[in-house]
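Table S2 (continued). Query chain:
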Amino acid sequence: MKDILKGILYVALFAIPFIPLIVSDSLFFPFITGKNFTFRILVEIAFAAWVLLALYDVSYRPRFSWIAASFTALVAIMFFANFFGEYPQKSFWSNFERMEGYVTLVHVFLLVITLGSTLRTEKAWNWFFNTTLFAASILSLYAFGQLSGNFTINQGGTRVDGTLGNAAYMAVYMLFHIFIALLMLIRSKHMYAKYGYGALILVFIYLLVQTATRGTIIGVTGGLFLAGLYAALFAKNAPQVRKFALGGIMAIVLLVGAFVAAKDTAFVTENRILNRVASISLEDGFARFQIWNMALQGVQERPVLGWGQGNFNYVFNTYYEPELYGQEPWFDRVHNIVLDWLIAGGVVGFLAYASIFVAALYYLIYRSRFQNDERFPVVEQGILFGLLGAYFVHNVFVFDNVVSYIFFGVILAFIHSRIGEPVPAIEQSRVPQKIVDNIAVPVVGVALVGAIYFVNIPGIQAAGDIIDGFTARSPEAMLSAFETALARNSFGDQEIREQLTQRAQQAIRTEGISEETRTAIISTTEAELLKQIEEKPGDARVHVFVSAFYRGIGDIEKAREQLQQARALSPQKQQIIFEQGFVEMQAANFPAAVEFFREAYELEENYRDARVYYAAALLYNGEVEPATELITDEHIPAFAASNIAMSAAAVAQAYDLMLRAATHRVEENPNDLQAQVSLAAVHYDSGDPSAAVAVLEGAIEQFPDFAEQGESFIADINAGRKPGSSPVNVMTEGQEVIEATVE
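Corresponding output:
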């Protein structure tokens, strides 16, 4: 039995480094859910096997360290912080998009204890670190495939993200493996192996730069400098190491200096990646500073135990600043590790989290330097010190995900395995083998099956059901898939309901849909949204989503009611005020729409969307002159890009605005035939048929295939008839003005 348990334990632990390679296209959020469910299941299996092994074999039993004690305190404190927080369900279980919460915190804790109690020898840790470096090498090959164009960069653009789906996640993965490779370079006794690890370090640094994640690049640079400085100062008995450390410090200083000196040259400015790194400034950090300030206000409101994990959205909505209009509309993280933990667990939770770092540094630095503890050689002290510093700096600007949690846990387990002290009561206790065989094994086995099922299976099934809803070929099949997903009773109900709502709004417009099916979709969706409001009160985003659904089915009064509740929860959020204005536009209550859009505009006049929507509302209300005054030449591009604004100008016959906007569209897209035809139509509608003919003649010359239709239009104009139908999308009163977009 012991050999079987050892096999299960080691297979589960050594499979964990390959988790970052998982992409589950059959599950909702394919870069998140597959990795997280696999992590949880592997940790549960490993922990169960370890518990039984610890009963059989004293050498596997847990030992004491202040790292383990600090992490235990964090787990205990966060239970109460989440229980008494704003929305405990999300705090404990999170959602598909993040998959963090208390359940992930517990699994990371179990990983630290299990891994730190299992891998006790240098050989075992070398195998583990080499395994994760092998997995990182595979991921790196995929990343190079993205850079060469053979694989798609999942976020789009040029920032490489590998199989992680997010450049910031890729960056922190490279961060850990740069230092792990450096650690193995120092530990290795073979020159060829050292060359191999050195090559990996260079590859990982190159890929880190290709993620263009500025906070992580700064963190790694500072961490490597810190590691080199530490070795240079304290590795007195290793002159060769000090020599290399000093060389590394000089190389870092020279590279940073050269980059700063060259940041305004064409070589840097014309390279998207380098230019992004070079463009770090306090002005760029304005949005982050605003969000951090909002978080501080939230901490003051709940200073002791905070709001619970995953509940920053309540703080964000309450203290929202209109100057943040250019950011994503719904923040659920502070993007600062200190403030994230202060929000999640208050001062008590943050101190517990910080104590983990303090404990690690206590063993690495204080015990080593001042108590002559030789369990960590000087160079390893410096590397691990630099790693923790780099990781902390990264998290000052970003936030954790399953990959960073895993490897932070691995590093903590590595330190714990070295310094953990036996606990006499645990070491000396003996459990008869018969009791272990006949009671402990079946009990732990049943508990493991129950944990795997209840923690993971409903979520996995529901995440797959959502994909079935996306790919359904009929409205009936779509509804059935989402009903099945909701019946799983998983932690993803809010996301399931939101996806159902979006699909429902498309399905009820499907040509040929029966009235019975249409009614069923509407009634089911409405019932689920109302459940969401009941389950998660006080969330402005939910009310906006429900309002968009009501607006989509034409129930204006209920849409108004939901938006009133959303405004009460987040009074200065322009997106909510926009929705109020759109509802009034749809109801053809244009004076009310003007007032809402005026309010949004006056909150932050630099917000171009607010200006354009305000002008559109004025146009629908027949106020052409003030609308024209709002849209100066500077704002024509934004006006021209808005179909709502262009339609409003057509309704109001604001030909000056229409001509300026239509001309801009042609200038921006000279090869767009439709833009030229639209410009000709605007000239004709404004009473200048000769200008319309001139535009059409130019279009015929540029697009020979348009000749027949263009000549027909010109003939109509010359005969005094309106050419064809106006290509400008004129919006009639009472027509829905915009599709709801709640991200």
